[in-house]
């Protein structure tokens, strides 16, 4: 399937590639466990439903913060790997500490630390993989994001045997209804923005939960990830007490890749301002931006806005598809509707796996056009067949498949346009996280005020906005190519790249 050149690149960078993939497995493991376990954590902390939902906010907010500052660690390989090692180790520590958090505030702090680590992982792993493979990064980015889905599938499976089927705080007169608990768990699985004020669960009484074992198992499963990062640091001679000797092997590989057939990269690396962006804020204040054309800003802005919309759909759909399914006119049983979120995430994982060979055969822009159009068509069909429970499951599968590869394809596309400077990755990762958080709030508010049918209408509007913004991105891409072709003084070191031109055909 692959040509010999790609196999050579993979063999040359096998250890760092596998390490970054394992780091994203850690990311996926951490992002999916909170929803299924939230009711048992409520019992553990003996808090109300309203209090425990703040744990979601602390994780999401700090994930966004970590994504925005993560790029600051990319300037050297030592900084990048040190940040990854610290972040993955923190995730294992948080898993181990969560069973000891018997206060909701302590739990929120632990989840905030985990969210910060996840944000740093998200930005750095993407940047480092793009940095290694550059024009060939699309294939490897698809594989990278497959491991998020894989980790997100494993995490609930580990937790499920240890979840309480009845109310895990047993007080006087407590009604331990299994059906109510399953309904609450499914409602909280994706987002805390449900109206749960009419549910009054006891906070005083005997706590009967075994969820601690799930977290300790996940801590052990995640432990090999920081060990793998440390092994990569040792191989690259970046461990301070073992430093010295010849230059790191990975840096020599990267230098060979940059100089082979790409003389322009050797020129740009001499420019002290090129490609040395840090976090999101230093990207916005870099000296490089002074001579940048309008198209440079437009590509960052519109690329980020497309992911703001599409990742917003992912967050809103996974969070509220259960609420939509149990409400009229669908009226699915709670247990049946509870499978929808799992089906959605499973289809995203399968879609990313399928996209690995597709990204080798087709340029990212074609995959983006196909996926964005597929999202709109799928939501339109869901609106047409709004009363069909069968098509709800079919449409959920299709929507997950079309949404699955948008992020890695957009990342490869924009970094290719902007000559792999790394700042685009920070902007895109932050925009995607912001969209997932903000649009969940917006869609949840609309559903509660206008009814469940508005859920699909919101998805259609957001999808159409994302598709329109993508055509704006293509326009700025063409403008940027024209600017580079004019040989302006600010960009004389860059040349027009054949792959970018092919991607517009």
Account of the protein in words:
The protein is mostly helical and 505 residues long. It folds into two domains: 16-241, MFS general substrate transporter like domains (Growth Hormone, Chain: A, Up-down Bundle); 273-488 and 495-505, Growth Hormone, Chain: A. It is 72% helix and 1% strand. It has a two-stranded antiparallel ribbon. Helix 5 (54-69) packs parallel to helix 7 (104-133) and helix 15 (294-326) runs antiparallel to helix 20. The longest helix has 33 residues, at 294-326. The chain is globular and about 70 Å long.
Sheet with most strands? 2 strands, antiparallel
Tell me the count of domains: 2
CATH topology of the largest domain: Growth Hormone, Chain: A
CATH superfamily of the largest domain: MFS general substrate transporter like domains
Describe the structure concisely.
The chain is mostly helical.
Tags for this entry?
505 residues, Growth Hormone, Chain: A, globular, two-stranded antiparallel ribbon, disordered C terminus, mainly alpha, single chain
Helices and strands in order:
Layout: H1 4-12, H2 14-31, H3 34-45, H4 49-52, H5 54-69, H6 77-97, H7 104-133, H8 137-159, E1 169-170, H9 178-188, E2 206-207, H10 211-222, H11 224-235, H12 249-259, H13 263-268, H14 280-285, H15 294-326, H16 334-337, H17 339-361, H18 364-384, H19 389-404, H20 406-417, H21 423-450, H22 454-485, H23 498-502
Antiparallel strand pairs: 1-2
Helix pairs in contact: 2-7, 2-8, 2-11, 3-9, 5-7, 5-21, 6-7, 6-10, 6-11, 7-8, 7-21, 8-17, 8-20, 15-17, 15-19, 15-20, 15-21, 15-22, 17-19, 18-19, 18-20, 18-22, 20-21
């Amino acid at each position: 399937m692959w040509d010999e050149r790609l196999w050579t690149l993979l063999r040359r960078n096998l250890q760092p590639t596998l390490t970054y993939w394992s780091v994203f497995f850690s990311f996926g493991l951490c992002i999916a466990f909170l929803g299924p376990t939230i009711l048992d954590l409520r019992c553990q902390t003996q808090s109300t439903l309203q209090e425990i939902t703040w744990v979601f906010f602390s994780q999401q907010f700090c994930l966004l913060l970590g994504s925005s500052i993560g790029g600051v660690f990319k300037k050297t390989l030592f900084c990048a790997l040190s940040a990854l090692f610290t972040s993955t180790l923190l995730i294992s520590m948080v898993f181990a500490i969560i069973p000891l958090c018997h206060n909701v505030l302590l739990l929120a702090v632990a989840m905030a630390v985990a969210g910060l680590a996840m944000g740093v992982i998200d930005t750095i792993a993407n940047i480092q993989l793009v940095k290694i493979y550059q024009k060939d990064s699309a294939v490897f980015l698809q594989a990278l994001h497959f491991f998020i889905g894989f980790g997100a599938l494993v995490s609930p499976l580990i937790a499920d045997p240890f979840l309480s089927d009845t109310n895990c705080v047993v007080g006087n007169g407590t009604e331990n209804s299994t059906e109510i608990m399953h309904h609450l768990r499914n409602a909280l699985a994706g987002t805390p923005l449900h109206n749960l004020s009419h549910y009054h669960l006891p906070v005083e009484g005997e706590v009967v939960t075994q969820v601690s074992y799930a977290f300790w198992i996940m801590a052990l499963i995640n432990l090999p990830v920081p060990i793998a990062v440390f092994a990569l640091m040792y191989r690259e001679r970046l461990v301070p007490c073992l430093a010295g000797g010849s230059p790191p092997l990975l840096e020599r590989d990267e230098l060979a890749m940059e100089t082979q057939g790409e003389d322009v990269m050797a020129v740009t690396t001499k420019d002290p301002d090129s490609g040395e962006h840090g976090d999101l804020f230093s990207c916005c204040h870099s000296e490089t931006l002074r001579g940048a054309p309008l198209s440079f800003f437009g590509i960052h802005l519109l690329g980020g806005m497309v992911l703001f919309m599409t990742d917003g759909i992912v967050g809103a759909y996974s969070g509220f598809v259960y609420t939509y399914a149990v409400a009229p006119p669908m009226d699915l049983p709670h247990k049946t509707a509870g499978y929808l979120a799992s089906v959605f995430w499973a289809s995203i994982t399968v879609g990313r796996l399928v996209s690995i060979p597709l990204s080798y055969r087709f340029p990212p822009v074609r995959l983006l056009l196909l996926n964005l159009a597929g999202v709109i068509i799928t939501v339109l069909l869901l609106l047409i067949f709004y009363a069909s429970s069968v098509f709800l499951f079919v449409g959920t599968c299709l929507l997950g498949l079309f949404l699955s590869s948008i992020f890695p394809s957009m990342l490869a596309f924009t970094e290719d346009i902007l000559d792999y400077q790394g700042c685009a990755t920070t902007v895109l990762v932050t925009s995607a996280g912001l969209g997932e958080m903000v649009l969940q709030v917006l869609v949840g508010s609309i559903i509660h005020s206008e009814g469940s049918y508005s859920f699909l209408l919101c998805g259609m509007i957001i999808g159409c906005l994302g598709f329109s913004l993508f055509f704006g991105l293509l326009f700025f891409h063409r403008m940027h190519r024209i600017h580079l072709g004019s040989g302006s003084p600010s960009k004389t070191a860059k040349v027009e790249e054949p792959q970018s031109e092919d991607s517009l055909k």
